[in-house]
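name: query_chain
kind: protein
chains: 1
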Amino acid sequence: MSNGKRRARPLPGRSGPEKSASSRPRPDGCRGSVLFLAGWGGPTLAGNPGCQAHGPVVSAPVDVARIGARLRRHEAVRILAIGSSSTQGIGASSPAFSYPAQLESNLGRLWKHSVHVENAGRAGETISETVGRLEASLGSGAPDLVIWQVGTNDAVNGGDEGQFSALLKRGIDAAQALGIAVLLVDQQYYPAIKDLGQYERFVSLVGATASAEQVPVFSRYRLMKTWSEQAPDLLASMLSADGFHMGDRGYDCMAQLLADGLVAMATPAGAASRPAVTAAAHP
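structure:
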């Protein structure tokens, strides 16, 4: 990727500890090879009532030029999903219900194309551990998109904020140096946040660093906090029994939001339109 970076709008902040391993918006405002999920009161998803966003869930366009080019050439699409327990799928009833697995299923079904979403989640990690794994993964093969879920354990543990921002920048720069687009996923909101001020500072650091680096953020924190404000029972239905990690329904919703936007933006021009995701392909 060239040194010139896309401008991203800043994103607000979020909360909650990750433990060691153990609706839907309509795409809007999109042009060319970018993705922007506006999500203003989209229709309720069949099979997942309440999976809708009432404001933007992605802070800025996502560069999906590489994905679009692969689709035009009928080549397999590869997405690297990296992060901690929310990526690994802690809280899901099985690995098939993790968000990367459901995203892969959704994209493959909608594109009718070979899609591989690599699940590189590792529960309990902080950014200092994940950034090294990200760099190693990039060195072993360049994906078409990196979705990096980041910051929950750092927020919970109260790590060094300056170091967190520096490491986040380092990981983003490593991907961009190879021309690979990055989409950050910020922390989840959950009711039992112990130090809301500290937690939301880390949420804000994700947004501020993303804005400076001109990459988009999927604002899971804002999405989930809105669910809580609308109806505590709605948020509870998206969480697992531990009240912290997402459960099957929450991961399903996250995967659907991502899949619908990516499909809308990266489907080759002239291709038949694809139906929106309406329900997860549960085993």
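note: The radius of gyration is 17 Å.
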